[in-house]
Amino acid sequence: HPIYGRSCAAVLYAMALTRGIDQSVSNTGLCLLDTEAELSAARFHSFSSQADTKAELTSLYRRRLKNYVVEHKPHFIAFEEPFDHVMNANTTPLLWIAGATIALADGAQRPWYLMRPVTWRKAFLGYTTVSELERAGHVDLSWYREIEAQRSPTKQEQDKRQRQTKAGWKKAVRARCESEGMAARDDDQADAAGIAVCAMKSQAFKYL
C-alpha cells in the first residue's frame, strides 16, 4: 500500500507558549516555546502516523493534532504553505493536511497564518538562497558548477544536486538550533523550531 505524505509544518501558540509542528507521515516534530523565555528553553515532542490513503492520513493527522490543541489551548496556528513543493502523487496529500490544519484551527476559533519556506528560513537562518547556504558551509555544489561549465547536467545529476541542497537546508536549521541551545532531536523538530520562531516574529502574531 502507498504511504502518503511529505514534510510540511505548522505552528501553534498557547498563551505565552509557542508550539511548532513539522508534519510528515512517518514523523511529526513539535516544538514548544515560551515566548517570554530564551529559545534554549524550547521543548520538543513528536508523533508518528501512517496511512494507506489520503483520507485516512488526513483523519489520523487531524485527530492527533487535535490532542495537542486541546492540551495546550493555542491562541494562534501557523503552518508552512505546501505549494512550493512539486505536485505529484506523494506531495498532493500536503494540501489535505494543510486543509485539516485550517479546519482544526477554525473549529477551535483560533487565527491561523500561512508561511512559505523562504519566509521562515529568512527569519530563522537570515538567508534564503542556495549560494548563501553554500557560503555558510552547509553544502558544496562546486561539482555541479563544473559540470554546468562543460555541458548540460543529466537528470540524475540534477536530482543529486536537489538532494544535497535539501540536506544542506536541514543541516543549516539543525546548526541554528544547536547555536541557540535548542535541543531538537531530528530534522522535523528542527524545522518546527524554525517555523515557530518565524511565526513568533510575524505581524500576524503581534496583532493578537
Pick out its properties.
208 residues, alpha+beta, six-stranded mixed beta sheet, 6 strands, 49% helix, 17% strand
Describe the structure.
The structure is a single chain. This protein has 208 residues and is α+β, with helices and mostly antiparallel strands. The protein has 8 helices and 6 strands, in the order E-E-E-E-H-E-H-E-H-H-H-H-H-H. It has helices at 54-72, 93-107, 117-125, 130-135, 142-150, 155-179, 187-201, 203-206; strands spanning 8-14, 17-23, 28-34, 43-47, 76-80, 112-115. Strands 4-3-2-1-5-6 form a 6-stranded mixed sheet. A hairpin with a 4-residue loop joins strand 2 and strand 3 (28-34). Helix 1 packs parallel to helix 2, helix 3 (117-125) crosses helix 7 (187-201) and helix 6 (155-179) packs across helix 7 (187-201). The longest helix has 25 residues, at 155-179. The chain starts with 7 loop residues before the first strand and ends with a helix.
Judged by helices, strands and strand pairing, the structural class is alpha+beta
Number of strands: 6
**Strand share of the residues?**
15-25%
Termini distance? 43 Å
